[in-house]
Amino acid sequence: MNPVEFGHAVLISRVAAGQWHALEDDLVAGRAETSRRPDGRTFVSVDAWHDATFDRLAEAMLAALPRPLYTVVDEADLELTARWQRAGFAVRRREWEYAVPTDPRVTGLDSAPPPGVMILPVGAAEEAPLRALDRQIRAEVEAGPGWADMPAEVLARPQLDPAKYAVAALSGRYVGLLRVAMVTRQPRIGLVAVRAEHQRRGIGRALLAHTLGALHRIGKDTAAAEVTESNVAATALFDGIGARRAGSNLELILR
């Protein structure tokens, strides 16, 4: 589909909707593709070994797509960041990758929840009220700050598996949740959220304390978490419990 030749050796071809290949001597020397997130934004990626191939794929792809466009890079990957900046992208936001200690002697977190709040451990929540809480929290995000600064995994609306959630209940109603994935050797905290009317009462902190303590008891020394730099409350929380910033990702935008 729509091949575009650059120079004598590299051919850029749109092979499918949202997919481009760079061919050199009939071999695939690079790929580019797009993905559309649930918030409606289009993210782009290019996989190529050489700068020239990357630039040519990016040029062909960007010429065919409406703006704004987005991409995410590891901030430590200076070469990839420079490639996207050559294509016209600029930094929009930073997301910190934290290594979070689980030992309460390090975090200083008190496992006792606020008065009247009960923490249901991972796997104990009922699916129907958990699903209702997820809908309520998402509606509050949509009515307030929106999804633009949310990590991709939050937007993806994963299947609600109670085996991955700890829940805070108040007077029998679910008011907060924490999602943790155990798919790798290092558990990953994917989301901590509390209903707007119950925030600033220590419920999120109690969820975190309970879950980290449970991980510590099964021999997990650290957990991973991602926090947007602009989320002052979350960064202050993780910095305050001894979490270490292990890296960062940049979201870039082409307007």
From TrEMBL:
According to the UniProt entry, the coiled-coil residues are: none
Q: Name one Pfam family in it.
A: Acetyltransf_1
| InterPro entries listed in its UniProt record | Acyl_CoA_acyltransferase (IPR016181), GNAT_dom (IPR000182)
Q: Which GO terms describe its molecular function?
A: acyltransferase activity
Top-level lineage group: Bacteria
Q: Which CDD domains match?
A: NAT_SF
Q: What is its EC number?
A: 2.3.1.-
What keywords would UniProt list here?
A: Acyltransferase, Transferase
Residue intervals of the N-acetyltransferase domain: 117-255
Q: What is this protein called?
A: GNAT family N-acetyltransferase
Q: Which organism is it from?
A: Plantactinospora siamensis
